[in-house]
Amino acid sequence: MNEEAETARIARRHAQILGDAPRIEALSIDEYSADLDPLIRQMIAINQSIDAREADLLTDVTDAQAQGLGDMSAVLARLPEIIRTMMRHPALFARQTDVGVTLLTQGKLSARDREMAILRVAWLCQAPYEWGEHVMIARHAGIAREEVERIVIGSADPGWNDHDRAILRGVEELHGDAMIADATWAVLAARLDEAQLIELTVLIGQYQAVAYYQNSLKLRLHGGNKGLSAR
Q1: One domain, residues 98 and 121
Q2: For an engineered disulfide with 214, which of 49, 129, 177, 205 has Cβ 3.0 to 4.6 Å away?
Q3: Which residues form the domain of 49?
């Protein structure tokens, strides 16, 4: 597909997911309660672990609370819409965030393997929010722009080494057949230990779920996220 056609295709996908208002309204400031504080602390942990820009915003909330500031509206209003939307189901979001914190702060996979897998999931799901956010995170993990371009192509790109190709192929096989094939598994097992192999499958499933709710809720991009155009 040439560049012009790809730009048009991405624009259509963005219009499909981002063209209308989100399907569920984000939590308003006057609906926020102290019961949600533990969830905010979880989100701080997960965003600090990947050096995400939301970490400072979340810390502002807890700092304001600790200082007893009477008017929290300005601070809370800065929270990303995704967080305020998922606060509509805080118990579920907290449990899912627990998994995310474990994968990102205690995970056995290298940051490179993790982000390559997440990006391939995001591209296969054509998830603008997830793709755009993790392109930025992947760059911090040392994944170059040229490699991001090749992740779009996937395991078929001839430039990958055997291990990187197997990471991408594992995502593709789980996405298409709900199972990693024996040949791919053998290549992965040559470098990954048993805990890492288990974690890889859970990681892929976790970010498939994230893509599902981000796309279906029509969550809007923010803070420089370029969606599927990001490289």
Answers
A1: no
A2: 129
A3: 29-105
Mean pLDDT (the chain) is 88
Q: Residue 119 has what DSSP assignment? A: H
Q: Express each pLDDT in 47-65 by its tens digit.
A: 666 656 555 555 555 555 5
> 155 with 169: CB under 8 angstroms?
yes
Secondary structure class of 182 (helix, strand, coil): helix
Question: Does 227 have pLDDT greater than 80?
Answer: yes
Tally Cβ neighbours within 10 Å of residue 65: 15
Asked if residue 152 and residue 72 are part of one domain, the reply reads no
Structural domain count of the chain:
2
- For residue 216, give both structure tokens: 């279906």
pLDDT single digits (tens) 63-85: 555 555 455 556 666 778 888 89
Helix axes 194-217, 111-124, angle to 10 degrees: 40
Q: Does residue 23 lie in a domain region?
A: no
Are residues 127 and 76 both part of a single domain?
no
pLDDT for residue 75: 60
Q: Where on the phi/psi map is residue 132: left (φ > 0), alpha (ψ -120 to 50), or beta?
A: alpha
pTM reported for the whole predicted model: 0.87
If asked whether residues 224 and 118 sit together in one domain, one would say: yes
Which of 55, 39, 133 has its CA nearest to residue 90?
A: 39
From 105, 131, 150, the end of a domain falls on 105
Cα within 13 Å of Cα(70), Cβ side? 0
Examine residue 9 and state whether it is found in any structural domain, yes or no: no
Average of per-residue pLDDT across 195-215? 98
